[in-house]
Structures are given as C-alpha cells and as structure tokens.
Amino acid sequence: MKRNWFQWWRAVLLLPMAAANLRAADTNAVLEGWFAAQAAVHTLSADFVQTRALKTLVQPLTANGRLWFAPPNQFRWELGRPAQTIALRHADEMFVIYPRLKRAEHYPLGASAPREWRDAMSLLDAGFPGTRKEFDSQFQIQSLTETNGTWLLALQPRRAAAREIMPELRVILATNDFSLAGNELVFVDGSRMRNDFTNVVVNAPLDEKLFQWKAPADFKVTEPFAK
Amino acid sequence: MLCVSCRTAPPLPPADFSSPGWRLRQGQAVWKPSKNRPELAGDLLLATNAGGNYMIQFSKTPFTLATAQVADGAWQIEFGGGRHSWRGQGAPPARFAWFQLPRALAAMEPGRPWKFTRRADDSWRLENTRTGEILEGVLFP
C-alpha cells in the first residue's frame, strides 16, 4: 500500500522523491493514528445530521438522526426524530425497520449473503474499519487533505462492482484525536450523502437491547434477498 | 419509442424548490415491481408545483432506486441510481407507477390498468392489476 501510494505520487505529480516520500509517510501516520483510535473504541454513540445532495434537486435535503456502534459490527442507525427508519445490525444479520409502515426487512450478512450486498455493507462500514489489512483490501486511498482541524481521506473501493455503486467515499477525522467527524458517500450518478457527527460519546455503557429487535405482532417482516 | 426518446431528449434540469409554487413532501412506501419480485420498503420524496411539474424519488437510503420527473412537457425516469434511464416529450408512459402516483395523489384518475385506493389512515395503495406491480405507502404531514 505504502509503495503503491509513493509510486502513484511520483509518476503522476513528478515530485522529487523526498517530497513524495514525506506525503506517503503523512498518509501512513494518519491511518495509523486512526486505527489506533479505533482500537480504543469499545462503544460509540453520536447524533448526526445527514445531508443528501441529489442530482435531481437543486437544494440539498437534511435529516437528523442518532447512531450507536459497538465493534466489531454492531450498530443502530436511527434516521428522523421520532425514528422513521432504523437500521440495526447484530452479528451476521441486519434489520431495516420502518415503524410508520409497520414493516421490516431482514438481511442475512454472512458468507452466504449475495456478494453485491456484502460490497454495499463494506462501503457503509468504511467509517468504522476493523483492521488495517481489512481496510487496505477494500479501499485505495485517493487523497489526504487537512482542512479546518480535520483530515479528509478520500477512498476508492477496490472492487469494480463496488465502484459501480459508489466510486468514492470520504472519511472526515478530527486532527487532534482521529475521531470520526463525518463521512461522505459519492454515488455513480454524482449524488452525495454526508453524515456530520456531533455529541460523540465514546466508551459509555450501551444497552445490549439497542442492537436487538423482535418484530411486534402487527409488523410484516420480509427478506428481500431470499431465494 | 422509449429508446428513440432516450437518444433525443436532453436530461431534465434539477428541480429548484426555492421557486414559487413548489411543495415538497416526504414519506415512505413499499414497492413490489411485479407479482414475482420481492417487495422493497424505502423513503419517498414527492415535489409538485402549481404548473403540473413534479419529481418523485424512491430510495433505500443511501441508494436511490427510482426517480421520475415531469417538467414543462418533458419526462424522465431513472432506475438504479441513474444506471437505467428513459426520457421523452409529451405525456409520460402510463406503465410506470412512478408517473401514476403523483397524478393519483392529486385526485386524478389513474389510467387502466392502474387502481388507486386511499385508506382511512391516509395511506394509499396503487396497483397494476395486469402486472401485479404495487406501490403502497404514506406521505408524512
């Protein structure tokens, strides 16, 4: 990864070797800092503002929500207040719940899940990487820039199928502690979705029930990828 | 006809809700594309203006599944985040639920074989009795 990054800079920008080496080292240092910070996160909760810039609309759309996360892969996203959509992952399954519709969708996420769906999930998980090796196998770093106290890390999915959905992802990290300040997904049609996190609380106890869900009797639960 | 339209009609410009007369509504819906395909729930966005232009979008956040737009006598419909799209002039094709729903919600009779039902809780159901396509949902106040 480090060598590819160095060679790319040298070939494309024709910078002197010393300068290119420094940039590669900077990127590596930020990544190492991010992964070290991630390793210390045992639970996380945060509010977020979601901003969607759609190519069909001049004005962006915003919505508020709340996130709870427990590594390696338990999460609960609630969008809207009161929650209109809830995405909840526990172990190898995920529910997307629509309380107003009294509907829920169940998605198995294990090895038997469709490859496209696993690709999509890995894209959505980009802000919460597990290991450096896993991260490097999924993403290629396009650029690293520092702006207003944040690192902006632009990533490209390595898998062509994933790039057809989402050619670029951006992860925004605080420069002081490498905490996740936001993320942005760029879609193939040019639309973008950005989440800006606030009120981040790390390592406070979370109720296990946050990541579990049992369908009420009047809910219809479907499995869109069932054969 | 759709392919010819696709080649000749330019893409519609994005809708500008800051212009006078636009109304933006959000909701949720369940879409069953045909009787043999699974249903998908998602978020619905409907923008209409007094001149009869509209834009409707169905997405499973963050992925956009379908977008239909009518503006000044031209129409456009896209599926799969823009990977499949058709455009044309004149009345939009009646076979797409996404063009039927804004009409039905505006109390205009949908063309056959579409059947529109509004329920007491303000939810609604649009069904193509020939193909089994169903769109049912609610728009938030």
Describe this structure as you would to a colleague.
Chain A has helices spanning 2-13, 17-39, 115-124, 132-138, 160-165, and strands at residues 44-53, 61-70, 74-79, 85-90, 93-98, 103-108, 139-147, 150-157, 168-174, 180-186, 192-202, 220-222. Chain A has 227 residues and is an alpha+beta fold. In chain A, strands 7-8-9-10-11-1-2-3-4-5-6-12 form a twelve-stranded mixed sheet. In chain A, helix 1 runs antiparallel to helix 2 (17-39). The model of chain A is unreliable at 5-22 (pLDDT under 50). Chain B has 141 residues and is mainly beta. In chain B, a hairpin with a 5-residue loop joins strand 8 and strand 9. Chain B has a nine-stranded antiparallel sheet with strand order 6-5-4-3-2-1-9-8-7. Chain B is globular. At the A-B interface, loops of A face strand 1, strand 2, strand 3 and strand 4 of B.
Give a brief description:
The complex is a heterodimer of chains A (227) and B (141). By secondary structure, chain A is an alpha+beta fold.
SSE layout:
The complex is a heterodimer of chains A (227) and B (141).
Chain A: H1 2-13, H2 17-39, E1 44-53, E2 61-70, E3 74-79, E4 85-90, E5 93-98, E6 103-108, H3 115-124, H4 132-138, E7 139-147, E8 150-157, H5 160-165, E9 168-174, E10 180-186, E11 192-202, E12 220-222
Chain B: H1 2-8, E1 22-32, E2 40-49, E3 54-60, E4 63-71, E5 74-79, E6 84-89, H2 97-105, E7 114-118, E8 124-128, E9 134-139
Sum up the structure in keywords.
heterodimer; A: 227 residues; alpha+beta; outer membrane lipoprotein receptor (LolB), chain A; twelve-stranded mixed β-sheet; 5 helices; 39% strand; globular; B: 141 residues; mainly beta; 2 helices; 11% helix; disordered N terminus
